[in-house]
Amino acid sequence: MPAVEFVSQTHCHLGEGPYYCPRRDTLFWFDILARRRHAFDFASGAETVLNLPEMASAMGITGHGRDVLFTETGLWLWDGSELTRLAAIEADDPETRSNDARVHPSGAFWLGTMGKNAEPGAGAIYHWFAGRLECLYRDITIPNAICFAPDGRTAFFADTKDGRLMKVAVDPANGRPVGTPEVLVDHREGQGGLDGAVCDGDGHVWNARWGASALDRYAPDGTRLATIDLPVTQPSCPAFIGGNRIAVTSAFEGMDEAARAADPDAGATLIVTLDEPVEPRFEPPVLLL
C-alpha cells in the first residue's frame, strides 16, 4: 500500500498549485484565499511563506530560474524581491480569479480562471506562449485537471462542475489545440469532483478527487487503474517530486465546524510514496519570448 505522510501541517484554507523545483529541491504551493505561497525546502526541512498582494494559485519557472506566478489579475514574474507583470488576464474583472494551470512541454502555459464564488460559466482557459495570450475555452465554471501527455500531443482538462475529464489533440510545438475536445472520463455519477491532475512519463493521468479523499490514476484510454485513499476529504492537486513520490495539496474551504472536527488534517499538504515505480515528470520551463 502507498505510504502517506504530511510534508506540512500548515492548514490551508484553499491549498492548490503544488510545484516542485528540482534545482532548488523545493516544493511550492499556494493558499489561494489567504494570498500566500508556501515553500518547503527538503534539504533543510524549512517551510517559508511569501505573502502576496492578491490571490494566486499556480506557478512556473523560466529557463533562467525566475518564478512566474499566476494570480487573479494575470501572470507576474517574481525575481525574489518584486513582481513584474507579464500578461494581464481578466485584470479588469474583480469577480474572477486564477485557478488551475500547468506548463505544456513546449513552454506554453495553460491557465484557468473562475468566478470567486464559482459562478456558473464565469471562467475560461487561456493559452500563453512566448508573450502571446489567447482564450481557448469560455463558459468554464471551475477549470481543473489541466495537464499534458509526455509527447506534448494531448492536453487534458476538466470543468469540475461539469464532471467530465476531457482530452484534446494539441500541437506539440506550441501546445495549441488542433482538434475538438472529447470525453476521456465521464465522472458525472461518481463520488466527489475532478480536481487538479498531473500526467506521468507513461501518459497516465493522476487526478485529485475533491470531496472523496482520493487520488485516482487513469490510463491514456480513460480506464481507472488505481485509487489511493487519502487522509483528507478535499485533496486538490498532485505534483511529482521524484523518488516515486507525489505531493498533494488539500483544503478546508466550505467546511463547517462539524466537518472540520471530522477532518482535522484538512488543508494540510501530503506526500504519497508509491509502492510501484512511476516515471515522474517535472514541469518544463515557461517560454517567455
Lay out the secondary structure.
Elements: E1 3-8, E2 15-21, E3 26-31, E4 36-41, E5 46-51, E6 56-61, E7 67-71, E8 74-78, E9 83-88, E10 96-103, E11 109-115, E12 123-129, E13 132-140, E14 143-148, E15 154-159, E16 164-169, E17 182-186, E18 193-199, E19 205-210, E20 214-218, E21 224-229, E22 235-242, E23 245-250, H1 257-262, E24 269-273
Antiparallel strand pairs: 1-24, 2-3, 3-4, 4-5, 6-7, 7-8, 8-9, 10-11, 11-12, 12-13, 14-15, 15-16, 16-17, 18-19, 19-20, 20-21, 22-23, 23-24
Task: Using brief descriptors, characterize the structure shown.
4-stranded antiparallel beta sheet, mainly beta, globular, single chain, 289 residues, 52% strand, 24 strands
Question: How does this structure look, described?
Answer:
Helix content is 2%, strand content 52%. It has 289 residues and is mostly beta strands. 46% of the residues are buried.
